[in-house]
């Protein structure tokens, strides 16, 4: 068997309480519009259960297709509030996480998962309330041979993601905000939502 290879995870900072408070009401659509329509992976990455909502900084993980050995290693270094963002090369033949990993992740304070690959046990994951966004669902379990990398750059649905980038995900899908641009993007998204609220009120007034 090939051992998993975990890189030294870079120093990373959690979101502040004020950052989380501002991000909480933002729709993924408003965020991606504020990024000039960039930063959102293809439509194959979608919520695995209705009502899933996710905000948090990414811990990036790269794994061999159909193999989840490195996911277990990632759970040893993940910090509370982080989102495990897993590049499984879009493979849809094997599930990379299931209910046992989800339950352990939840006990560690993991905010959720974004998986460019498949997951399983979605009913149990929904009951746990852990937000999981993935390319697909299959009952077939993974291999555990490795290799994999924690903390490096990954590609999720055609979007490059770094550890520390901020994940916003809801019923419409997922958006990744580069951490250095967080304040600017949040400002723009808030302005967009305020503008849309005014337009909505005007439309409703005209109908009354």
UniProtKB/TrEMBL annotation:
Q: Which reaction does it catalyse?
A: oxaloacetate + H(+) = pyruvate + CO2; 4-hydroxy-4-methyl-2-oxoglutarate = 2 pyruvate
Under CDD domains, the record lists: RraA_family
The keyword rRNA-binding is assigned to this record: no
UniProt signal peptide: none
Cofactor entry: a divalent metal cation; Mg(2+)
Which SUPFAM superfamilies does the annotation name?
A: RraA-like
Q: Which residues bind Mg(2+)?
A: 121
- Molecular function (Gene Ontology), one example: oxaloacetate decarboxylase activity
Family under the similarity heading:
Belongs to the class II aldolase/RraA-like family.
Query: What's the protein called, per UniProt?
Result: Putative 4-hydroxy-4-methyl-2-oxoglutarate aldolase
């Amino acid at each position: 068997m090939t051992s998993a290879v975990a890189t030294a995870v870079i120093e990373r900072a959690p979101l502040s309480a004020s950052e989380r408070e501002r991000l909480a009401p933002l729709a993924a659509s408003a965020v991606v519009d504020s990024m000039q329509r960039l930063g959102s992976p293809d439509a194959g990455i979608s919520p695995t259960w209705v009502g899933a909502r996710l905000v948090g900084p990414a811990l990036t993980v790269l794994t061999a297709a159909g193999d989840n050995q490195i996911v277990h290693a990632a759970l040893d270094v993940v910090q509370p509030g982080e989102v495990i963002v897993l590049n499984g090369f879009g493979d849809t033949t094997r599930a990379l996480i299931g209910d046992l990993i989800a339950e352990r992740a939840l006990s560690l304070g993991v905010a959720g998962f974004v998986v460019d690959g498949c997951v399983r046990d979605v009913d149990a994951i929904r009951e746990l309330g852990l937000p999981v966004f993935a390319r697909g669902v299959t009952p077939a379990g993974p291999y555990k041979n490795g290799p994999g990398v924690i903390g490096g750059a990954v590609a999720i649905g055609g979007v490059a993601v770094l550890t520390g980038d901020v994940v916003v995900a809801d019923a419409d899908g997922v958006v990744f905000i580069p951490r250095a641009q967080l304040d600017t993007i949040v400002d723009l998204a808030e302005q967009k939502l305020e503008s849309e609220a005014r337009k909505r009120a005007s439309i409703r007034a005209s109908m009354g």
